[in-house]
Specification:
The chain is α+β, with helices and mostly antiparallel strands and about 500 residues long. The chain contains 11 helices and 26 strands. Helix content is about 20%, strand content about 35%.
């Protein structure tokens, strides 16, 4: 019943778009594809053939702009099942939250790290046919030694990486070829819940598969997928292999890059996520210009405004970001921002929540100035803050003289970490594959709360405890990872 209802809505929408402005409604003849109810289908077959609602004209233009991406890479992994199914993240369990880019690893009998050559497949979108730029997901081409792009007309083209940004899961690759077709960017800020969308990609290696649906939700964040999240949620069927593929509107404009699904089985369950095109475009421009995204900060800890906080502050709406702390000597402090301020707008654009502010600051070029509309003690005001590369005292460091921490790097908890302002601890900034910390299960962006049940607030605290530990017994670490917590033992 649901499928039937959706198809009728789609037909109605498309037909409404094809009539003249003077016609406000649709007749029964319109809904029957131009067929007169009083005549037989045979008599009207030829006449109705041109009025049957279809996405075909749009797809003929859009589909050549979507490509299949094949990669070869060497990775080091502990071979106990698929390393891309992270059992420590609750979203990966039940229901399981999966990426589309599936590597196939042979099973191993031991738990020792092994270097394996793997092959993977994903999708990409040609966004500049003249220069050969292709937009895809960072995880599709991460650590790839060889990348090939297969076009709609079966050409296999060697590609090179222009730049990747794991924080948003966006990457730009480039091919040298003529006669390419690109998909134009749409404005993802114009999307509304209920808008029809179409996903184009290569699920399970089935090239140029098309599915359709609607925008189910906007501004999804807090899913633990990327550092900067503002996902479009859609019920268009998306499956493994769609990573990096296009989400387009009914005009064939790119409004999202498919990146993840929420699934119990690994297949589509009607909950898919795409990176908004405006965010992808901003990241792409920096990757093309600099080879990386150079992010700045203002130097504030922020949080969402809960109903209780709004009531206490006398606010009628739950929008904006509450400043929980201002870091000393930061750009924010210099601009006059104070703890307790409520940031309502960023450069004139209303903010939905704290994640919205974080995303906008993260995509602002270093050195640019931003105008913040804030509410302080019930009084509105505007302040101008320069977005800078600010040193928050979070330099990366190694735990020296401790073998068990060889290959791992830590820092003080950085202000842009999702747990900043919520917990005190030491942030893991890097874990080398195959290292003792890696084998114990420590991961980048973990926050170490305590070592052998002693709280740690700085890398020096952790080093002092680790240097006194019996290497054979190991070091017990209490870890915060996303919304979960766990204990690990490093030896």
């Amino acid at each position: 019943m649901k499928r039937t209802f959706l198809s009728v809505c789609l037909a109605t929408t498309l037909l409404a778009g094809s009539v003249s402005p003077a016609r406000a409604g649709l007749s029964l003849q319109d809904l029957l594809g131009g067929q007169n109810p009083g005549t037989s289908p045979v008599q009207n077959a030829e006449a109705s053939s041109m009025s049957v609602p279809t996405l075909a004209p749009m797809l003929k233009k859009a589909m050549p702009g979507v490509v299949n991406i094949a990669v070869k890479a060497k990775v080091t992994a502990q071979m106990q099942g698929n390393p891309f199914n992270d059992p420590d993240n609750p979203l990966f369990n039940d229901p399981m939250f999966r990426r589309f880019f599936h590597f196939q690893f042979p099973q191993q009998q031991d738990n020792q790290p092994q270097e394996q050559e793997v092959q993977g497949a994903g999708s990409g979108v040609i966004v500049d046919a003249e220069k050969g730029y292709v937009l895809t997901n960072s995880h599709v081409v991460h650590d790839a030694e060889e990348i090939y792009v297969i076009t709609d007309d079966k050409r296999k083209l060697k590609a090179e990486v222009v730049g990747t940004d794991p924080e948003t899961d966006i990457a730009v690759i480039k091919v040298k070829e003529d006669h390419l077709s690109q998909i134009p960017f749409g404005n993802s800020d114009d999307l509304q819940i209920g808008d029809f969308v179409v996903a184009i990609g290569n699920p399970f290696g089935l090239s140029h598969t098309v599915t359709s649906g609607i925008v189910s939700a906007l501004g999804r964040s807090g899913l633990g997928i990327e550092g900067y999240e503002d996902f479009i949620q859609t019920d268009a069927a998306i499956n493994p292999g769609n990573s990096g593929g296009a989400l387009v509107n009914l005009r064939g404009e790119l409004i999202g890059i498919n990146t993840a699904i929420f699934s119990r089985s690994g297949g589509s369950m009607g909950i898919g996520f795409a990176i908004p095109a405006n965010m992808a475009k901003a990241v792409m421009n920096q990757l093309i210009a600099n080879g990386e995204v150079r992010r700045g900060h203002m130097g504030i800890h922020i949080q969402d405004i809960t109903p209780d906080i709004a009531d206490a502050l006398g606010m009628d709406v739950l929008k904006g970001a509450l400043v929980a702390d201002v870091i000393k000597d930061s750009p924010a402090e210099k601009a006059g921002i104070k703890t307790g301020d409520i940031v309502l707008k960023f450069n004139g654009e209303e903010l939905k929540d704290a994640s919205d502010l974080k995303n906008r600051v993260g995509l602002t070029h270093l050195g640019d100035k931003a105008v913040l509309d804030i509410l302080r003690d019930g009084h509105p005001m505007s302040l101008t803050v320069k977005v800078e590369k600010f040193d928050f005292g979070s330099e990366e460091a190694e735990i020296s003289g401790v073998e068990m921490f060889k290959g791992a790097k830590v820092s003080a908890l950085r202000s842009d970490h999702p747990l900043s302002g919520k917990v005190e601890g030491v942030q893991v900034t890097d874990v080398e594959a195959g290292s003792p910390a890696w084998q114990a299960g420590l991961k980048k962006d973990d926050v170490i709360l305590s070592a052998n049940q002693v709280p740690v607030k700085t890398p020096q605290d952790l080093e002092n405890i680790a240097q006194k530990v019996d290497q054979n017994r190991g070091l017990l670490l209490n870890i915060r990872r996303g919304d979960g917590a766990l204990f690990l033992v490093i030896k």
